[in-house]
Amino acid sequence: MAANGGIADDVGFLLSRASGVVARSVNKALAPLGLRVRSYSVLLFACEWTPGITQRQLASVMGLDPSQIVALVDDLEQRDLVTRMPDPADRRNKLITATDEGYQLRDEALRRVEDAHASHFEHLSPAQLDDLRRMLHQIVFADE
Amino acid sequence: MAANGGIADDVGFLLSRASGVVARSVNKALAPLGLRVRSYSVLLFACEWTPGITQRQLASVMGLDPSQIVALVDDLEQRDLVTRMPDPADRRNKLITATDEGYQLRDEALRRVEDAHASHFEHLSPAQLDDLRRMLHQIVFADE
DNA sequence: TATTGTTATACTCTATAACTATA
DNA sequence: TATAGTTATAGAGTATAACAATA
Fold this sequence. Notes:
Two copies of one chain form a homodimer.
Chain A: H1 11-30, H2 37-48, E1 53-54, H3 55-62, H4 66-78, E2 82-87, E3 90-98, H5 100-121, H6 126-140
Antiparallel strand pairs in A: 1-3, 2-3
The structure holds a DNA duplex (23 and 23 nucleotides).
């Protein structure tokens, strides 16, 4: 599975290295906006889901424990980028929705992340990036 | 509902998710051996490099700061899995080399990691895994 | 002066368990 | 009782700065 050329060619090792390189770069690009890669992802999910995404759904889709979502949403909520609205149908759920400010910050964040990504993905064609996306998706959801 | 082509299909996001899924699984597989994915990588590099790898080289190849290598090597050294030998040619360098015990533990670790990987990569052909390796390598070393 | 390894510190991320409120 | 969110805590990972030994 690994080890044609040893640990340096191990897919798990390369995944970790590539993820680290990109995340570091994205964190730097987002720092002026007061975002990190995690809070950025939460903001985008809040923008994309209508009429909002529950914290449980966020935890599931981000691969995190629900307890880790709390602080991320707290931060965005305190900055008026998202709101926590109790779901009328089930008051245990809290629907996370982006505010107008949230959408505006997302637009700026998307531009910065796209620039950061460009330097890392420039040697890959759009078709290759599609293949890459598909394969990563299969690794993440291998058991479904 | 989620938008398609949104953050869930972002290559950086998928890299982070896939890396997390695999690392979690590998950490669990290595736990009985007292290894984690980081110390496992150090052990493998120590096994593969002749006549040893310096801590600076380890930091470079693993994408870490040299200060982070110290504790990793300390741990392996205290368990007699690797040795720190001053390089006669330049006594600032310390060559990290695996002991016989280190090589033995590596063999067992390799088996466990291969099993852990199998469940995540089973839907990908050997050719696809080669493509994946190549693309990840290009992302990591895009600026070289 | 420059480089290798080291220590120290602060912050972020990860993993678990236990609690509350709603159902 | 079961589920969603929350709090708390300990451990692992990340990022910098400064220092001693060696070149």
